[in-house]
Amino acid sequence: MKKTIFTSLAILSCGFFAYGAPPELEPDDHTVAFWDLSIQKKNVIQDQSGFGNDLQFRSLDKAPLPVIKKDEGAIFDAQGGILEVKPKESLRIRKGDFTIEMVFKCGEKTNLKNAFFFLLGNKSHTEKTSGFFINYSTWQGRKFTFGYVLDGKAQSFSGKIAKNLENNKWYHLIISKKGDKLFMFLDGVLLGEKEAKGDISLIQNRNLRVGIYPVPWQRTKDNKLKTDGLIGTIRYIKVSDTGKGK
Question: Can you say whether residue 188 is alpha, beta or left, with left for phi > 0 and alpha for psi between -120 and 50 degrees?
Answer without folding.
Answer: left
